[in-house]
Write a structure and sequence with these properties.
The structure is a single chain. The chain is globular. By secondary structure, it is mainly beta. The protein starts with a helix and ends in a 5-residue tail after the last strand. Helix 3 crosses helix 4. The chain is built from four helices and 41 strands. It is about 10% helix and about 45% strand. The protein has a domain of about 220 residues. The strands form ten sheets. Strands 7, 8, 11, 12, 15, 16 and 17 form a seven-stranded mixed sheet that branches.
């Protein structure tokens, strides 16, 4: 037998063997990162000891599989083409509610298959252990009618939540503290600031706020691990991580007398939300750990809304693969918030969400490896939504990894995204455009070899994105002809921008790091030419050993394109400050340098001619924008 034939037979054998023992979803890097982030953010709130024990066992199992010369895993087998599930496509034109395509029995079977295979991995892990074995779609028209700043939007008219909101007369804030959250409402007039209302949400962790139509929407979560019958050290009991996302709606037509009018809930960890055309859309991730032994106990493996188990016809199965998690989607009409307008659950584990004015795109990274060959792909599921109703359209698998919602953009009915393609410890980047049916129209590969995308921003038909390894290539790609996207510019600079945003006509601002050994925050202003060219017009370096949250949370950055202002919280050594800069046409000049207590709790907002630094953990600082005092 030739060496080539032997190798092919060996590959086939290991594919067949290893495919029956998939590494659990909980071991994927994105899942581990999410769990670590949650553990760090809520050290006193979330204590899933058994969950982390399972991760340790799965990691040992992975080591054993590698030691056995091969491993292969794939979290989904969606087709390379758009693949609508039979009889699942609906229309929302007449405000029909979501209709799923599966049954409790089928769901139970998929979850059992997942945990049956995981149990095999756990046994191997025990034996092995005993032997030692994170851009953006620009909301193009940023001119707001009210004379105050609002939360920065990725898509025009699709509102997003944040930790601070204002209506121009009042400022609404939240602060999580141990096992409760405080909501504070301040009246503001110039430098006069008065606390007019305060209330506490017990055993809640507030995620975000909305202020719409004289109603305050509070999105919060709670965590209780339900495994009362679990056997110590054995992950064979059904554990539903009873993370619950709450939606509390308050009437604040008179803020001093804010009154709760409705409280709604859905299973799962809060992921994100949007508000558009009078409806709030909320998304959570519901995870089932361990084997569920009784199929009749549907509450053990089916998510709930408002405390009631979801019906079969509200659950969507994307593929037939074993699975142990859902995305729970709900909508509520703020004019009539007595109940959810529509609910849906999707059997999958999506990590990245993008919402246009009519469609929802959910992306999930797929890690594939066999022997020495590894790669990443992404499954993108497309939904339509209208007047609070969801409908599933199709799913497509594409190459590469989409790490952020700001890497995605819907333009003239098509869907564009930038991605990093990891293969065998090397990487390259690209951009791809799909049509309304999720079929490929055009793409460009091999941009920024051995580099990773750090930021992306779209302005109309132009896509701008930054890759980084040692230098900072800023790519400008024209997607006006979706079948033939064209690279218009590639600007190489030291360091990188992890945040991009439009900064007025023909300008783009970037916030990131300067590179080198002293870790300086860098602000770059780019001039955008009519021919697609990109040049660095000016830059500003902050003190060495400084950091910001700009790259991980775009809402932490204040941008006023008309007044040429950019602000964000920073830390240098151990000193926390909120810094605001003004671009005078030539350079950036610092106008504010305000001490703050916590970087992640701080926002900058403008009301009329006054600027407010809202430090939720401490106080609100007010400054006259004429004198900056």
């Amino acid at each position: 037998m030739s060496d080539k034939n032997f190798e092919e037979k060996l590959k086939k054998h290991w594919r067949e063997e290893a495919d029956s023992i998939p590494v659990p979803d909980s071991l994927h890097p994105a899942k581990i990162e999410e769990m670590i982030d949650k553990k760090m953010e809520f050290p006193k709130k979330r204590t899933h000891k058994k969950l982390y024990a399972g991760i340790t066992a799965a990691a040992a199992c992975l080591a054993l599989l590698i030691a056995g010369t091969a491993y292969y895993f794939n979290t989904g087998r969606q087709s390379e083409k758009g693949t609508p599930v039979a009889n699942s496509k609906q229309t929302t034109s007449d405000r029909h509610e979501f209709v799923g395509n599966t049954s409790y029995s089928e769901i139970y079977s998929l979850i059992q298959k997942y945990h049956d295979k995981q149990s095999m991995s756990d046994i191997a892990a025990e034996d092995s252990a005993s032997t030692g074995a994170k851009s953006s779609t620009g909301a193009e028209d940023t001119t707001a009618t009210p004379d105050y700043s609002e939360t920065d939007l990725q898509v025009k008219d699709v509102m997003e939540g944040d930790i601070v909101k204002t209506d121009g007369s009042f400022i609404y804030t939240m602060l999580n503290n141990n096992n409760c959250a405080k909501i504070r409402i301040y009246s503001v007039e110039g430098k006069t600031i008065e606390l007019v209302k305060q209330f506490t949400l017990k055993k809640r962790w507030v995620e975000e706020l909305y202020l719409e139509n004289s109603k305050l929407i509070i999105l919060s979560s709670d965590s209780i691990e339900d495994n009362s019958n679990a056997t110590c050290g054995v992950a064979d009991d059904c554990i539903t991580l009873n993370e619950t996302t709450y939606i509390d709606i308050y009437d604040v037509s008179t803020p001093q007398n804010a009154k709760k009018i409705k409280s709604l809930s859905q299973s799962g960890i809060y992921k994100t939300s949007r508000f558009t055309n009078g409806y709030l859309y909320s998304f959570s991730s519901h995870l089932i750990m361990g084997e569920c032994k009784n199929e009749k106990e549907i509450s053990e493996y089916i998510p709930s809304v408002n405390g009631k188990t979801m019906k079969e016809n509200k659950i969507q199965k994307i593929v037939d693969d074993p699975v142990n998690s859902y995305v729970v989607m709900t909508s509520v009409n703020l004019a009539k918030p007595d109940n959810f307008s529509d609910t849906a659950a999707v059997l999958s584990d999506y990590t990245t969400y993008y919402m246009s004015t009519s469609h929802l795109y959910l992306a999930n990274t797929i890690y594939e490896q066999f022997l020495w060959n590894s790669s990443t792909k992404t499954a993108i599921s497309k939904f339509e939504y209208k007047d609070g109703a969801f409908s599933y359209l199709t799913t497509k698998k594409v190459k590469g990894q989409i790490n952020d919602s700001y890497y995605m953009h819907e333009y003239k009915g098509n869907f564009a995204f930038v991605y990093t393609d990891w293969r065998n410890e090397t990487s390259t980047n690209g951009i791809c455009i799909l049509d309304k049916n999720m079929n490929t129209l055009g793409k460009i590969d091999n941009l920024g070899n051995d580099e990773t995308i750090y930021a992306s921003y779209y302005i109309g038909s132009m896509a701008y994105f930054v890759t980084y390894r040692q230098t900072d290539p800023v790519f400008a790609v024209d997607i006006s002809n979706p079948k033939k996207p064209v690279v218009k510019a590639k600007l190489k600079l030291p360091g990188f921008s992890s945040y991009l945003h439009s900064f007025g006509e023909n300008q783009l601002i970037g916030v990131g790091m300067a590179g080198g050994d002293d870790d300086k925050v860098k602000i770059s202003l780019f001039a955008l030419g009519e021919n697609g060219s990109v040049t660095e017009q000016t830059k500003l370096l902050l003190p060495k050993y400084s950091e910001t949250e700009a790259g991980s949370n775009h809402k932490s950055v204040f941008i006023d394109e008309e007044r040429k202002l950019v602000g964000f919280a920073t830390i240098a050594d151990t000193t926390l400050r909120y810094k605001l800069y003004h671009f005078d046409g030539t350079e950036f000049k610092q106008v504010l340098n305000v001490p703050i207590k916590k970087m992640s709790n701080t926002r900058g907002i403008r009301i009329g001619n006054y600027f407010y630094v809202v430090d939720n953990a401490k106080k609100i600082h007010a400054y006259d924008m004429q004198t900056w005092k």
